Amino acid sequence: MRGRFAISFSLSSINSPFAAGVNSVVFCAFAVSVSVSVSLSVSVYSEVMGSKRKNREVQSDDDESVKRRTKKVDGEKPQLLPSMIKNKEKRSALYAKLKHEKKTEKRKQAKAREALESRALELGEELPPKKIPRTIENTREADETVCRPDDEELFAGNDADEFSSVLSRERVPKILMTTCRFNSTRGPALIKDLLTVIPNAEYYKRGTYDLKKIVEYANNKEYTSVIVVHTSRREPDALLIIGLPNGPTAHFKLSNLVLHKDLKNHGNPTGHKPELVLNNFTTRLGHRIGRLIQSLFPQDPEFRGRRVVTFHNQRDFIFFRHHRYIFETREDKQANANNKDTDTGEEKKTLKGKIIARLQECGPRFTLKLTSLQHGTFDTKGGEYEWVHKPEMDTSRRRFFL
Predict the structure, then answer these.
(1) With a threshold of 0.85, does the pTM exceed it?
(2) What is the helix (H) or strand (E) element at residue 159, kind and residue range?
(3) Counting CB atoms within 10 angstroms of each CB, which of 3, 30, 116, 398 has the fewest?
């Protein structure tokens, strides 16, 4: 205070132009300092308030996310989920607890269902309906081309299609097998296994012949089909089936090949004509592919050989298997005194009425996926395609074409 008073007194006591100028400079400097201090304090205040506001917003967002992640149950508190816990040990402990609770609840439901079934059997009532699990197959998209048993147009078309002469036993199936031009040892090895599966099949080396000339030669020799095994990088990757004389031509992608010699505990097939099983070819396209496959095999199987060839369609993948089967009757030994022979004292064997079937795989084993179906015989330039698979057709996991 003494310094400020002395300066103001001395400046006010001197009445001169110099004193007035000094006084104006002092007041300007004072005003500038005051304005700077005020602006600094305002900026600091705004920063503090802004940080508080941001913290409140982040906290509110976290609360909302926690509310969204919590599992609400009617009349109970929100359930804590493992994904909300950051501590690994606590999260794993909570997950194990929830899994154990779910397992015990499932066991209780199974016991209650068994009790209802046993009670219904005792009282002679109808059994409670079994639950059908939801799968991709039974929840597939609706398809207008699914075949129906009362479809007269379908059965009328079967009598006039390209396979009717073979399937009605007017012609005997006769198959010509060959490979692509540049093949490896795996291609002929697959054909060697297929020759044991398909009766009346013959193998010819491809050489440098064009496929159209091979088809013309097979037509002249009265073959009913031509099978071409395509290899890429020393591994069979495609299968071409050409129906003769008027087609159609089906191109399949081949994968997951296991040859006869690579199967563990494989069986050796006999020379009998095999039985043929076709599963889940439900649409018009699947029905046509099924008849194409059926035309490769004779229509009079020899059941004495106990051979069965299966083409199982599941999600548009055709699984090929070749088995031998045998039926057996189980024998059970009962150690009761009533079953003992009075003379020898040995136990008698009593036959049970339960008959079981045992399978032995003969091979080969592979998977097919249809890529195209063409009208007529093989023609890459002027051929008309009935169906071609394109990537934009795979719009859903539940959409199938076969």
Answers:
(1) no
(2) none
(3) 3
